[in-house]
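Hi all, long-time lurker, first post. I run a small reading group and we've been trying to get comfortable going from sequence to structure in the token notation. Rather than ask abstract questions, I figured I'd post a concrete chain and ask someone more experienced to write out its structure so we can walk through it together at our next meeting. Sequence below, copied exactly:
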Amino acid sequence: MPRAEHAYLRYVALGDSQTEGLGDGDDTTGLRGLADRFAEHLALHSPGLRYANLAVRGRLAGQVRAEQLAPALALRPDLVTVVAGVNDILRPRFDADEVAGHLEAMFGALTVQGARVLTMTFPDLARITPLARPLSPRVSALNERIRAAAARQGVLVVETGHHPVVTDPRLWSADRLHAGPLGHERIAASLADALGLPDSDDSWTHPLPPDGAPRPTVAAELRWAAAFLGPWLGRRLRGRSSGDARTAKRPELLPVLP
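-- Answer (accepted) --
Happy to help. Here is the structure in token form:
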């Protein structure tokens, strides 16, 4: 991996629930998440780093562009993560070109202003839950377009889908829609590795030790669907989102505390 050439002073994260930190903490104690954890990696080598997180759960790629790009540009970041598109994949109507177009517009606007931009591809959801198998072609289509858009705009891409460990259930929260604490830490480590931070490496790709856990049963899959998938689908049918009436948790650039 290329090594980081200089310290970063202003890091801004754009995205949806993963970047907001769902699955890593809660709304009572506070969410941590991949961006918070990545900011902590950065701060080890950039003591003056300030960090803002504009992500809001439930946002589609077009909403991330419409709501978060202008505030991000106003903060004049020198480093940005843009991670969005999974919510689009899960919607009944999905257009990979449209989603990638929103992402590329953000990539271009941020890089033209001088920011270093990182993004990522997504793992096959069917490897996390078999019920998501119909979505596999959508994931592949979006990943292909993310790679192409990133190449055109000079954006770094973290390839999560290539590594079997990313679909280990121990990296995911109980809802299987969001990473758990260990998953968020692995994603943060992948960003540090892609950026070439000192002391970063590819250990985030290494498999976890065997734990002897049994394979999910049909009954377990049905319980998961009733507890998590059903309510999610219900919100979609009612035209609601988990992010309704929510705003960014960290809209301003603030120091990263140890």
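A couple of things your group might point at:
The chain has a mean pLDDT of 88.
The helical segments are 17-20, 33-45, 61-74, 86-89, 96-112, 136-153, 181-195, 218-237.
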